[in-house]
Write a structure and sequence with these properties.
CATH architecture of the largest domain: 2-Layer Sandwich
Helix content: 10-25%
Structural class: alpha+beta
CATH superfamily of the largest domain: Chloramphenicol acetyltransferase-like domain
Strand content: 25-35%
Distance between the termini: 62 Å
Number of domains: 4
Largest sheet: 7 strands, mixed
Number of helices: 9
Shape: globular
Length: about 500
C-alpha cells in the first residue's frame, strides 16, 4: 500500500517551509519514525518522520523547493523491504537487553532487574531545543514508580519535569545537575521491575556526553543558507551551523550577517576589587536560564522600541462598590471570586477596540493589526516573571476571565505552564500593586506595542464637585512603542480605560 508523507504543522502563523535536506533517496528502506527530510521555516527547523515502514518511493518536493502545510512531500511503499527500527545515536546507546546479560548481573543498583529503559528529555515546546538539568529528585539505586518525577529541567521560559516511564530502579544518571541537554536527549536509565538494594552504591552522576567536534564537518548546508551566504559574501566557515550535524541553516546566516554589521557591544566594566573579608561573605550564583532570558528580552525591548510611558489615575470607587455588592452572589454562582483583573481586562479590550494601534505590532516595514484580543497577564513566580496569555478574552465573561487567570497563575507558580500558554499575546497587563508599588514604568513585552501597569490602591484626598473627599485611587501607566502608537492614541487609550473603570456601566453599554 502507498502511504503519503506530508508537511506537518509548522507552528502558529507559519504557512510554508523550504525543503532543506533529504536524508533518504528513492528505493531506500525506511523504518517507522525514521527521519526522511528536514524542512526550514522562517523561525525553526522541522524534521519529517516516516509514517510507515517500507521503501521510499517518489520524492515529490525537491531540496530548495517551498511547500505549504499538508503538502505532499513523498510516498512510501509500505511493507516492502522494510528497514529495522533506527538505532539510537552514539551518544544515546542503549545497554544490551537483560536477556542477553549474564544471569548474575545486578542491573544497575537494583535486584531482580529486567529490561533497562531509557529516560529521555520530554517535549520542551515549539522552538525550544535544549534545557538545563536543575534538580534530580532521585539518585542511582532509588526505587521509582511509573510517572514518578525523576528530575526537573529548566528552559528559557518554563520548568519541565521528566517522569519515569516504568516502575523499577534508577540504574544510571547520565546528565548531572547544571548540565545542558538537547530536546530528546538521554537523561537516565531505569531498570524495569527491579527492586531497590540497600547495599547498592550511590553512584555519582556521570558527566554529560561530550558533544562531537564541530571541526571538519562534512554535511550539506541548506539550499536557502547557500543562497543567503552567496548574497552576503560569506562562506560556511564564517557561519556557525545549528542544523543537524552542524548544517548551516538560513537563520544562522542571518545571525552572522547581523553580528557582522552590528557594532560590537560595549564590554562590561570589570568588577571593582573587593576586600578579602567581604569576598568571604559573598555568594556567587549563576543566573537561571529564565532570568537570563528575562534580562535579555527587557534590554532588547529598550534597545529596539521607541518606548514612552504615559500616566493617569483612576478612582476605583465604582469598581469596588460593584464588586462589594455582587462578590458574594458571584462566587456562589460561578465558583470563583470576583477580583479586579477581570475589570481591567474588559476595560483594556474596550480601549483597544477604539485605539487598534496599541493592539498591533511592527513586522519589518509592515504594521500588523490584530482583530483578536489575547491578553497577557504578568505573573510573578519564585523563578521570575512570566506572562501567560488569556486567549480571545473579548469573547469571555467576567467569570471565565477570573477562572482562566486563576488557573494560569497557579500553573505559573508551579512551573507547569507550556510554551503555547505564553505565546501569541497582543497586549499585556502587569500588576505591581500586589507588591505595594505606587507608581512604575512597565517595559514592553516584544513584539507587543503596549503594556498597562496597575498599581497600589491608596486612599487620597480628591476634589469632587468642589468638595474634598477621600477616594481609593490608583495610578495607571501605559508604556507604548512610539514607532506605531502616537501620543494622542496612547492618551486616548488610557483615558478610555479610566472611564470604563470609574463607571463600569460603560462596558455594558459599549460607550
Amino acid at each position: 500500500m502507498t502511504v503519503e508523507v506530508r508537511v506537518p504543522t509548522l507552528g502558529e502563523s507559519v504557512t510554508e517551509a523550504t525543503v532543506a535536506t533529504w536524508f533518504k533517496k528513492p528505493g531506500d528502506a525506511v523504518a517507522v519514525d525514521e527521519m526522511l527530510c528536514e524542512l526550514e521555516t522562517d523561525k525553526v527547523t522541522v524534521e519529517v518522520p516516516c509514517p510507515a515502514a517500507g521503501v521510499l518511493g517518489e520524492l515529490v518536493a525537491a531540496e530548495g523547493e517551498t511547500v505549504g502545510v499538508d503538502a505532499l512531500l513523498a510516498t512510501v511503499e509500505e511493507g516492502e523491504g522494510a528497514a529495522p527500527a533506527p538505532k539510537s545515536s552514539a551518544s544515546e546507546k542503549k545497554p544490551a537487553p537483560a536477556a542477553e546479560a549474564p544471569a548474575s548481573s545486578g542491573g544497575g543498583g537494583g535486584e531482580g532487574g529486567g529490561e533497562t529503559v531509557d529516560v529521555k528529555v520530554p517535549s520542551l515546546g515549539e522552538s525550544v531545543t535544549e534545557a538545563t538539568v536543575s534538580t534530580w529528585f532521585k539518585k542511582v539505586g532509588d526505587a521509582v514508580a511509573v510517572d514518578e518525577m525523576l528530575c526537573e529541567l529548566e528552559t528559557d521560559k518554563v520548568s519541565v519535569e521528566a517522569p519515569s516511564p516504568v516502575a523499577g530502579v534508577v540504574a544510571e544518571i547520565l546528565v548531572p545537575e547544571g548540565e545542558t541537554v538537547e530536546a530528546g536527549g538521554l537523561l537516565a536509565r531505569v531498570t524495569k521491575g527491579a527492586t531497590a538494594s540497600a547495599s547498592a552504591p550511590a553512584a555519582a552522576p556521570a558527566p554529560a556526553a561530550s558533544a562531537p567536534s564541530g571541526s571538519g564537518k562534512d554535511v550539506e548546508d541548506a539550499p536557502s543558507a547557500k543562497k543567503a551566504m552567496a548574497e552576503a559574501g560569506l562562506t560556511s566557515g564564517d557561519v556557525t551551523g545549528t542544523g543537524r550535524d552542524g548544517r548551516v541553516m538560513k537563520e544562522d546566516v542571518q545571525k552572522a550577517v547581523a553580528s557582522r554589521s552590528a557594532p560590537a557591544p560595549a564590554a562590561s566594566a570589570p568588577r571593582a576589587p573587593v576586600a578579602a573579608t567581604d569576598a568571604e561573605r559573598e555568594e556567587r550564583v549563576r543566573m537561571t536560564r529564565l532570568r537570563q532570558t528575562i534580562a535579555r528580552r527587557l534590554k532588547d525591548a529598550q534597545n529596539t522600541a521607541a518606548m514612552l510611558t504615559t500616566y493617569n489615575e483612576v478612582d476605583m470607587s465604582g469598581v469596588m462598590d460593584l464588586r462589594n455588592e455582587y462578590k458574594g452572589v458571584f462566587e456562589k454562582k460561578h465558583g470563583v471570586k470576583l477580583g479586579f483583573m477581570s475589570f481591567f481586562v474588559k476595560a483594556c479590550i474596550h480601549a483597544l477596540k477604539e485605539v487598534p494601534d496599541v493592539n498591533a505590532e511592527i513586522d519589518g516595514t509592515d504594521v500588523v493589526y490584530k482583530n483578536y484580543y489575547h491578553m497577557g497577564v504578568a505573573v510573578g513566580t519564585p523563578n521570575g516573571l512570566v506572562v501567560p496569555v488569556v486567549r480571545d478574552a473579548d469573547q469571555m465573561s467576567f467569570s471565565e476571565i477570573e477562572k482562566k487567570i486563576g488557573e494560569l497563575g497557579l500553573r505559573a507558580r508551579d512551573g507547569k505552564l507550556s510554551m503555547a500558554e505564553m505565546q501569541g499575546g497582543t497586549f499585556t497587563i502587569s500588576n505591581g500593586g500586589v507588591y505595594g508599588s505606587l507608581m512604575s514604568s512597565p517595559i514592553l513585552n516584544p513584539p507587543q506595542s503596549g503594556i498597562l501597569g496597575m498599581h497600589k490602591i491608596q486612599e487620597r484626598p480628591m476634589v469632587v464637585g468642589g468638595q474634598i473627599v477621600i477616594r481609593p485611587m490608583m495610578y495607571l501607566a501605559l508604556s507604548y512603542d512610539h514607532r506605531i502608537v502616537d501620543g494622542k492614541g496612547a492618551v486616548t487609550f488610557l483615558v478610555r480605560v479610566k472611564e470604563a473603570l470609574e463607571d463600569p456601566r460603560r462596558l455594558l453599554m459599549d460607550l
